[in-house]
Known about the structure:
By secondary structure, the chain is mainly alpha-helical. Helix content is 76%, strand content 0%. The chain has 13 helices and no strands.
Amino acid sequence: MAKFSGTRAHVYLAMLPVWIIVLVALVGSTVWTFVISLTNSKLLPIYKFNFFHQYELLLKLPAWQVAVTNLIVFGVLFIAICLVFGFIMAIMMDQRIRGEAFFRTVFLYPYAMSFVVTGLVWQWVLNPGFGIQAAVRGLGFESFTFDWIVQPDRAIYILVLAAVWQGSGLVMAILLAGLRGVDEDLWKATRIDGIAKWRVYTSIVLPIIAPMAATATVLLAVSVVKAYDLVVALTGGGPGNATEVPAKFVMENLFARQNVALANAGAIMMLVAVIAILVPMYYARRYMAQKAEA
Length: 294
């Protein structure tokens, strides 16, 4: 028993630096961010508290409202399309097609790129002067127009297009792992019963791989909340503020506009959004696991 206790003491001692880093770098910085958001800090932090004034101001700002609206549109479309495309690609890969390793690498490769690179690539591709529009017009179709990147009412969908191109491969990899875990006897039984394949996937397989789909959804949702580099690289938040998102709003107020308290209030609101996504999904997965065990 003494030896066991000594071993546990060594384990805790070895983990002590990690816990210190977590408490100071993560918890400490989060608490400090919240404290500064309760002040009237501008260029430098000051500790003259006005409590929730910054949050009231933030919620009334048209720029913040536009950023949140854009984030909702971007997030809903990005997550939904990624899940659908990822599921379709996973089904394709699950058919043991020839060259599966090659196609799996091709589909997953965009996710290995940073959002900055993705944004710059798609900015070049979609530029009306020398991108898709110019290429098609060069083939003789002079009336062809594809200038969504400079259209305020359509630019947000360009962000969705670029993000889906990068993120759907991750969903494919996660769901493919789930599909490969489905018992082969189940497929044999459905073939014997003559059940249509699409019905098997939607009514039987999809509920089985629901935990993998939930994991993919969480990863995509977190990417949505902290979306910044893709926006800056692809559209810069424009045209106008058509593609402004909360993360860009926070960074601009923190560095360019020198409004530290307002930026920190925005950051805390983003943290609340992440918690609002993760906590219900955590309890839903826990409930499903307990129900499966029962």
